[in-house]
Amino acid sequence: VAKVEEYSLPSYFDRRESPLPDIRFVKHLTPEQQSLKAKEKGSWVALSNEEKVELYRISFNQSFAEMNKGSSEWKSVLGGILFFMGFTGFVVLWQKHFMYGEIPHTFSEDWIARQSQRMLDMRINPVEGFSSKWDYDKKEWKK
Amino acid sequence: MSGALAKPVMRGMLAKRLRFHLIAAFSLAIGIAATFKFAVAEPRKKAYAEFYKKYDVAKEFEAMREAGVFVSARPTGK
C-alpha cells in the first residue's frame, strides 16, 4: 500500500476569502488540550475567557486581524524597482559609448534646418501644429 | 466578557461597495469626458473654425509653389 503523502491530505490555510479551513490548525493535541476539548463538549458558559482563546488557537493559526495586517514590504519592492531602473540607466550609457555606431546623417544640424524649412514650405500642420508656430510675414517663429 | 466588542457588519457589504464604486465610476467617467471635451475638443474646433475663416487657398498655393514643394507646378521661372 502506497504511503499517504502529507501534501495530499487536506491542509490548513489562513485565507480571508475562505474563513473555515479543512482541518484544525493543531494536529496533535497535548494532554491539556485534549482535556480542554473534552470540557468543550459540556456547557460553554463554564469555559473561562483564556480557555475560549486557547480553543480558538487550537483551531486557527492567525486571526483575521492578524492575517489581514499590512506589512512594510512595499517599501522594499519599490526601492528594488527604482534601483534596477537606475542600473538600467548605466547599462544604456555603456551601450551608447561602447556599442552603438554613428547616428544617421539626417540628424545633423544642417539637415534638420533644411528639413524644417521644407516642412514650413509645405505648411505642415498649419492649424495647431508645426507651421502654426511660424510667422510667415516676419519669417521668424511666433513669440 | 471583559469588554464586549461591537457586532461586526454581517450583511450588505457587496451592496455598500457597489453603491460607492458605481457612483465613483460614473462621476469619474463623466467628469473626465467633460474635462476632455471642454479642454481639448472645443478649443480645437474653434481653432480650426478661426483658421479657415481667414484662409485664402489661392494665396497659400502660390506661396507653396514659389517655395518649390510641388512637382507639377514649378515656381514661375524668373
TrEMBL record, chain A:
Bilayer-crossing regions: 76-94
Membrane topology: Single-pass membrane protein
Listed GO biological process terms: mitochondrial electron transport, cytochrome c to oxygen
Pfam families (UniProt xref): COX4
Xref: CDD domains: Cyt_c_Oxidase_IV (cd00922)
Gene3D superfamilies per the UniProt record, alphabetical: Cytochrome c oxidase subunit IV (1.10.442.10)
Family: Belongs to the cytochrome c oxidase IV family.
PANTHER family: CYTOCHROME C OXIDASE SUBUNIT 4 ISOFORM 1, MITOCHONDRIAL, CYTOCHROME C OXIDASE SUBUNIT IV
Assembly notes: Component of the cytochrome c oxidase (complex IV, CIV), a multisubunit enzyme composed of 14 subunits. The complex is composed of a catalytic core of 3 subunits MT-CO1, MT-CO2 and MT-CO3, encoded in the mitochondrial DNA, and 11 supernumerary subunits COX4I, COX5A, COX5B, COX6A, COX6B, COX6C, COX7A, COX7B, COX7C, COX8 and NDUFA4, which are encoded in the nuclear genome.
Functional description taken from the UniProt entry: Component of the cytochrome c oxidase, the last enzyme in the mitochondrial electron transport chain which drives oxidative phosphorylation.
Protein name (record): Cytochrome c oxidase subunit 4
Native source species: Polypterus senegalus
Gene name linked to the record: Cox41
